[in-house]
Amino acid sequence: MVRHALAEITGYPFVNADLLRQSLTHRSFGAPHNERLEFLGDGVLNCIIAALLFERFPQLAEGDLSRLRASLVNQQSLYEIAQQIELGGELLLGEGELKSGGAQRPSILADAIEALIGATFLDGGFDAARAVVVRLFERQLAGADPQTVGKDAKTLLQELLQSRRIALPQYSVVATAGEAHEQNFRVECAIPELKIRTQGEGSSRRAAEQIAAGRAHNLATAGK
């Protein structure tokens, strides 16, 4: 079931099902787990995103390319992609992690995305991994804008609303989960004048606000 679901989402059918299983196995479940694959996937992902940005922005300087890559490859971005494809439901976690909400923990989900990319690289080579990255990062790559490098989602949303003379968004925590040292926050971003309400989840209130703001910014710009 896992193999078919992820093959449909990523566009890549694994030949070695054991690699796919390992990429989804957290160390709390047992060995072999996905930490080594996560290490490999991190390197492969950064290389692929760097190559894609290099091709897409031929005039962009090295420093701007690095900042643009960092805006695409980070825990929150990977976490959001994992949520979009509902990867949490496919993870193999130990009983303790399951009870504490590990299937929705940003760090675990982000690591699993990198492990999945690392496993794809081992199973099908660089071209297969590249195709999976392009598919998973489709929305992020389409929205990559050198003009916004260095500006976070909350800043971009604030600037957009100010340019339209609209009141600034209201952020509120609607839910928290997990132990005190590893909490997960769900935050709502509301823009009453535009009838926009979005939510984001993250390992901190700030991170959750950024995701909610990014979604609100997408809706606000789409409706202009």
SSE series? HHHHHHHHHHEEEH
Shape descriptor: globular
Overall average pLDDT: 89
Structural class: mainly alpha
End-to-end separation = 41 Å
- The total count of strands amounts to 3
Strand line-up of the largest beta sheet: 1-2-3
Explain what the structure shows:
With 224 residues, the chain is mainly α. The protein folds into two domains: 2-145, Ribonuclease iii, N-terminal Endonuclease Domain, Chain A (Orthogonal Bundle), CATH 1.10.1520.10; 153-222, Double Stranded RNA Binding Domain. 57% of the residues lie in helices and 10% in strands. The chain contains eleven helices and three strands; from the N terminus they run ααααααααααβββα. The chain has helices at 2-10, 17-23, 35-56, 62-72, 75-84, 95-99, 106-124, 126-136, 138-142, 153-163, 205-222, and strands at residues 170-177, 184-191, 196-202. A three-stranded antiparallel sheet has the order 1-2-3. Strand 1 and strand 2 form a beta hairpin. The protein starts with a helix and ends with a helix.
How do the helices and strands line up, and which of them pair or pack?
Elements: H1 2-10, H2 17-23, H3 35-56, H4 62-72, H5 75-84, H6 95-99, H7 106-124, H8 126-136, H9 138-142, H10 153-163, E1 170-177, E2 184-191, E3 196-202, H11 205-222
Antiparallel strand pairs: 1-2, 2-3
Helix pairs in contact: 2-7, 3-4, 3-7, 3-8, 5-7, 7-8, 10-11
